[in-house]
Specification:
By secondary structure, the chain is α+β, with helices and mostly antiparallel strands. The protein folds into 3 domains: 88 residues, Butyryl-Coa Dehydrogenase, subunit A, domain 1 (Orthogonal Bundle); 106 residues, Butyryl-CoA Dehydrogenase, subunit A, domain 2, CATH 2.40.110.10; 137 residues, Butyryl-CoA Dehydrogenase, subunit A, domain 3. The protein has 12 helices and 10 strands. A hairpin with a 2-residue loop joins strand 2 and strand 3. Helix 10 packs antiparallel against helix 12. The protein is globular, with a radius of gyration of 22 Å. It starts with 6 loop residues before the first helix and ends in a 6-residue tail after the last helix.
């Protein structure tokens, strides 16, 4: 596999860098570029961030890898990789669930009506989605979901609950997995729906996390969904959900934020002291930074393997699991390493007097726990790799 960038790809990367430099001069730049928000920075959850996403769309940078027949540019996935990594390093909203999860799944499995309805809006950056997978008794074991969808004239009636739906308080549409056949084996009888979050009977309640991120619980009380809102075939939703989650694992988790954290670690080593000497002269510090840099390079290579697989029209299943597992564990490792070395001021929170790096690492320590759970917990990634990559039996 050749990971060298072509002249065209390097030119595009430079174009994105210049675009972001220009964007930093805008009055709302402090709101748009927010690396301190960790992975939550990917969301276009304010008017300024939504406008930023529309400016990406105006440049034709949303859906670049989609087929031309669906409004894309048929470009290699490397261009989306370069764009997303630049956005992540800057703490800007990423290209979004719409492009990387919903859009790609609709292209593969959606009806022509759903494609006509949603794909143009995704490419224009005028629509946002929340994912409705996890439930109180169905998280890592997602196939145990029990949100019930009952047949009704012209569609379905949904009753039950979802949780950890991060974007539900500002998104337009809800990408929901529900059980349409309660008597089928748990990996069958599941159907995928697209539901407006303004639908009668939907209630969205705030759910706080230890990382200060807002996610949500969503309650369904006899919510009607028409037949034309079904994605793909009825009762075949588990296939679409697992594909969409594979897309999620490499669309949302990027190397860019890790690179930004590495720069913070290097800045600390240049300015801090250990035993009265510059930190960068300490052998243990140098060895630790070398290990983190090696891990970062491995994470970058795993990400490129995912892009390579996706660019060949394949669903990057095992590749996405390796990437997600490695990236999220490295986020934790960096936070742990800094808390071990920076002294007591590193556990002070943002706004506390004397907080190390304005409380960045204290918040990172709390938030990175969440990253190992979202999109499938680390244990689930290990099971996927054991079963799909190594052919091992999994209990």
């Amino acid at each position: 596999m050749d990971f060298a960038f072509s002249d065209e790809e390097r030119a595009f990367d430079a174009e994105v860098a210049q675009f972001l430099a220009d964007e930093h001069t805008r009055e709302e730049a402090a709101e748009v570029f927010a690396p301190h928000r960790e992975a939550d920075a990917q969301l276009a959850d304010t008017s300024a961030r939504k406008a930023f996403l529309r400016r990406l769309a105006e440049r034709g940078w949303l859906g670049m890898s989609w087929p031309r027949e669906y409004g894309g540019a048929d470009q290699a996935g490397m261009y989306e990789y370069l764009l997303n990594e630049r956005l992540a390093r800057a703490g800007a909203p990423l290209i979004g669930k719409g492009v990387g999860i919903i859009g790609k799944t609709l292209i593969r499995h959606g009806s022509e009506e759903l494609r006509r309805r949603f794909l143009p809006a995704i490419l224009a950056g005028t629509i946002d989605f929340a994912l409705g997978y996890s439930e109180p008794d169905a998280g890592s074991d997602l196939a145990s979901l029990s949100l019930r969808a009952r047949r009704a004239p012209g569609g379905w009636r949904l009753d039950g609950q979802k949780r950890f739906s991060t974007s539900a308080h500002f998104a337009d549409w809800y990408w929901v997995a529900a059980r349409t056949d309660p008597d089928a084996p748990k990996h069958e009888g599941i159907t995928l729906f697209l539901i407006p979050l303004s639908a009668p009977g939907l209630t969205v309640l705030e759910q706080k996390t230890m990382g200060d991120e807002r996610t949500n619980e969503v309650f369904f009380d006899d919510v009607f969904v028409p037949d034309d809102a079904v994605v793909g075939e009825v009762d075949n939703g588990w296939r679409y959900v697992t594909e969409a989650i594979d897309y999620e694992r490499f669309t949302i988790y990027t190397v860019g934020m890790l690179e930004s954290k590495m720069e913070r670690i290097l800045a600390w080593a240049r300015t801090a002291t250990v035993h009265g000497r510059p930190a960068y002269e300490d052998p243990a510090v140098r060895a630790g930074i070398a290990e983190l840099a090696t891990d970062l390079e491995a994470a970058r290579m795993l990400t490129l393997r995912v892009i390579d697989t996706a660019s060949r029209g394949e669903v990057p299943s095992t590749e996405a699991s390796m990437c997600k597992l490695t990236l999220t564990r490295l986020h934790q490792k960096m936070a742990d390493w800094m808390l071990d070395r920076c002294g007591p001021t590193v556990v002070l929170r943002s706004g506390d007097p004397g907080a190390q790096d304005h409380g960045f690492w204290e918040h990172s320590y709390r938030f990175t726990v969440l990253e190992t759970i979202g999109g499938g917990a680390s244990e689930i990634q290990k099971n996927i790799l054991a079963r799909r990559a190594l052919g091992l039996p999994v209990r």
